[in-house]
UniProtKB/TrEMBL annotation, chain A:
Lineage, opening ranks: Bacteria, Pseudomonadati, Pseudomonadota, Alphaproteobacteria, Rhodobacterales
Main subcellular location of this protein, as a coarse class: membrane
Transmembrane segments: 9-29, 49-72, 84-104, 110-130, 161-179, 209-235, 247-272, 278-298
GO CC field: plasma membrane
Region forming the signal peptide: none
CDD domains registered for this protein in UniProt: TM_PBP1_LivM_like (cd06581)
Pfam family, one: BPD_transp_2
Source species: Sulfitobacter mediterraneus
This protein's name: Amino acid/amide ABC transporter membrane protein 2 (HAAT family)
Subcellular location: Cell membrane
């Protein structure tokens, strides 16, 4: 069996597993899984830029928040229908990524991290500044009545799970396909050796900009989906914490692997969920586990699997 | 030089502060031939090809490639026009397989045609003699094989002009002989600009030689002419008796 066939089977298998899990899991865990899938979309968007292109952004919360507010504000204040508001959210995030990319991609390495961090901080302050509309830190709730799609209730457990799974599947398969295209391979080349890539005749700058736009837009999908499925839009999601999360998830799951982001989010979610049932000091446990993983599995869970067992892992 | 030139520089100059790495270099590269660029250390050879390939920005002067002024094009555009460049210090994709390294080089042209791409990669790997190592991670290769891989990446682009910056540096004697054979087999297929310290390689492969000294062209001609040139002997060959 060729590697590409194996990876197709793997991706379809993961999706099949997620379908099965909905029927076998108790409602509490199914609910968790909806959230995990939405956050995994965010992690996958981040992974395209960090894991595949080698650009470490510390400001992705601005794209997540752009999707969230682009969706929430057009829906709430503009009265737009759900699909249109959703598209608005994604377009907002993509457009923001274009603008940020044109400025921030003039830098590299540590400077890029700092510039994206600062822009995200600006984004957070903008949300607070326009408190009249965004309700600032307090945020606003999207009423259940607004979260309907053609008679389909997106607030029910089933509605949530199905929507999250569909969106996750689109992004998952789409990105898995993208990284196999010549474009995706070139992103990996840039990560490995940008100067060499340029001297092979590739326009590294435009590749990085396109990667950032796609990464931002996918993060926007996650932000809009989060608001849609969980009914809340707030400035917390624009804070630096939400820029660090995707980095952690991707590092844990395996940067530059297609299934790493899902694994990372899942692992982190249940790590905190489980340890918090035993002790109040759950962040301590989470911290220790994170340190251990970084020491013993520096390439993340999926990355180590690829290195040791499944060399074909995409 | 009587031959048609494919690449030409006029008054190419590079100043680092007050130091002139290259001053007023007028150079013509004969189409389909192997031209060696030689000169003592610090003569400005790498700076010169850096300006030709677009890696280094020229302070003044112009570069013409196939009749087109490319002086202001970024490096990747120059590569797209048909230049290829191998680095003096080995520069490959160490984390990727040998196959993928070459595929990346070929994909810019053949990206839409997977069969042709695969055929090209196989052909190039076979030609340079590392086809059996296609699945190895490039960073695990020996130094000599990494140099060869880098040449393979140049060939995979089907360049009109192939710039090789000290390709035999650090190679074993037998590998150098293989390299000489490879360059000879390319004669007529493409135009080669070779920066080289190894005089054996230069004398056995070059159709023409240009000698740079202190950033300026000291002499140009066939290997026999250069060998007989008194200025060159004084500046360069005289100091390397084994040549």
């Amino acid at each position: 069996m060729t590697s590409s066939r194996k990876s197709t089977l793997l991706h379809l298998g993961v999706l099949a597993l997620l379908v099965v899990l909905f029927f076998v899991l108790p409602p509490y865990h199914a609910g968790n899984l909806s959230r995990i899938m939405v956050l995994a979309i965010y992690a996958m968007g981040y992974n395209l830029l960090f894991g595949y292109t080698g650009l470490l952004s510390l400001g992705h919360a601005m794209f997540f928040a752009a999707g969230m507010y682009g969706f929430g504000l057009t829906l709430n204040l503009g009265g737009w229908p759900v699909p249109l508001a959703f598209v608005a959210g994604v377009v907002c995030a993509g457009a923001l990524a274009l603008v940020i990319g044109l400025l921030a991609l003039r830098t590299a390495g540590v400077a890029f991290m700092i510039v994206t961090l600062m822009f995200a901080q600006t984004g957070y302050l903008v949300v607070l500044y326009f408190g009249t509309y965004t309700r600032g830190d307090e945020g606003f709730v999207i009423q259940q009545a607004q979260r309907m799609l053609g008679g389909f209730d997106l607030t029910s457990e089933t509605g949530r799970y199905v929507t999250a799974l569909i969106l996750f599947a689109i992004c998952f398969l789409g990105l898995a396909r993208l990284v196999q295209t010549p474009f995706g391979r070139t992103l990996v080349a840039i990560r490995e050796n940008e100067e060499r890539t340029r001297m092979l005749g590739y326009d590294a700058g435009s590749h990085k900009l396109r990667a950032l736009i796609i990464s931002g837009a996918v993060s926007g999908v996650a932000g809009a989906a989060y608001a849609l499925l969980f009914g809340y839009v707030g400035a917390t999601f624009a804070t630096v914490q939400y820029s660090i999360f995707p980095l952690l998830w991707v590092l844990l799951g395996g940067a530059g692997t297609t299934i790493g982001p899902l694994i990372g989010v899942f692992f982190m979610f249940y790590l905190i969920d489980t340890s918090s049932t035993y002790t109040n000091a759950y962040m301590l446990i989470a911290g220790v586990v994170l340190v251990l993983l970084t020491v013993f599995a520096p390439q993340g869970l999926a990355g180590e699997l690829r290195k040791r067992v499944f060399k074909w892992l995409p | 030089m009587a031959a048609v030139s494919i690449l030409e520089t006029r008054g190419l100059t590079k100043a680092y502060g007050g130091v002139l790495a290259n001053s007023d270099v007028n150079f013509k590269l004969a189409k389909g031939k192997v031209t060696a660029l030689i000169g003592p250390n610090g003569a400005g050879k790498s700076t010169f090809v850096g300006m030709v390939s677009g890696r280094t920005e020229a302070t003044s002067g112009q570069v013409f490639f196939e009749g087109q002024d490319i002086s202001h094009l970024p490096a990747h555009k120059r590569m797209q026009l048909g230049l290829a460049y191998t680095f003096q210090i080995t520069s490959i994709f160490p984390g990727l397989s040998v196959h993928e390294n070459v595929a990346l080089a070929a994909r810019r042209k053949l990206g839409k045609n997977p069969e042709a791409l695969e055929a090209k990669v196989q052909a190039v790997l076979t030609r340079v003699g590392i086809a059996d190592r296609a699945e190895q991670i490039a960073g695990d290769l020996s130094y000599g094989h990494q140099r060869i891989l880098e040449i393979a990446m140049g060939l995979a682009q089907d360049p009109h002009v192939f710039i090789l910056d000290e390709p035999t540096q650090g190679l074993a004697e037998s590998e150098v002989d293989d390299f000489i054979k490879l360059v000879r087999s390319l004669a007529g297929e493409t135009t080669i600009l070779l920066i080289e310290h190894n005089m054996k390689v230069v004398m056995e492969t070059a159709d023409f030689i240009t000698v740079l000294d202190q950033g300026m062209v000291l002499a140009e001609g066939t290997p026999a002419e250069i060998h007989a040139n008194a200025d060159v002997q004084a500046a360069y060959l005289g100091s390397t008796p084994h040549a």
